């Protein structure tokens, strides 16, 4: 198990960059006051990793919150993603410029390809390699790439992705994909760790959470980290942002880790990377 210490602890990416293993996701947080408040509350509470994307249409608010926060820019790990309609070499470079402008930043810490688009993603990746080589982004990676997508990309890549951000929760573990990423030194990251709220109805999780005197959400987020998976639970409510991060004063036993792993049923709550139409 990797060393998990506190809210500002990091995992080291394959290029030596330290990425905070716990962050705030802002998917569905409305641009303006909602996302500004969420990001400021998170930073104030000690979060140092903020995950957005151009398709979320809230990069302006995220940037404003970072600017108004008392936390120095270099202490915040900022992530965004290139959307499908912007994939391709030139259009990715343009999309990156637009993202930086909306965020009001002069570099990103991590830029991801949001979804696999076959051969087009190879062109996108070439653009991302250029952005990385020009030091406009500290790390590059992908999101929603299954093993065959990764293998296809690696055929043409000069740089191995540093991160693969996937739907990951107790009903969708994809251990073989995690093992493949670990073998290639690609950091695994979870989106939708709460199964869109569906974790709260699972009896085993309720019983286990009670045993550790924690909430179901805290139990699952701790499991993520002990699996070596970076996690970015999303919330715009201050009390939940604070509660989600209260996971550094307990540790799941190996038996309980295995029991959580066994809940896996290959069930997705989000789109299937092999079958989506956007």
From TrEMBL:
One of its GO terms (molecular function) is oxidoreductase activity, acting on the CH-OH group of donors, NAD or NADP as acceptor. The active site is at 56 (proton donor). The record marks 81 as: Lowers pKa of active site Tyr. Substrate binds at residue 114. Residues 30-264 form the NADP-dependent oxidoreductase domain. It comes from the Bacteria. The keyword NADP applies. SUPFAM superfamilies: NAD(P)-linked oxidoreductase (SSF51430). InterPro entries: AKR (IPR020471), AKR5G (IPR044500), Aldo/ket_reductase_CS (IPR018170), NAD(P)_OxRdtase_dom_sf (IPR036812), NADP_OxRdtase_dom (IPR023210). The keyword Cytoplasm does not apply. Pfam families: Aldo_ket_red (PF00248). Keywords: NADP, Oxidoreductase. Belongs to the aldo/keto reductase family. This is Aldo/keto reductase. It comes from Flagellimonas flava. The lineage of its organism: Bacteria, Pseudomonadati, Bacteroidota, Flavobacteriia, Flavobacteriales.
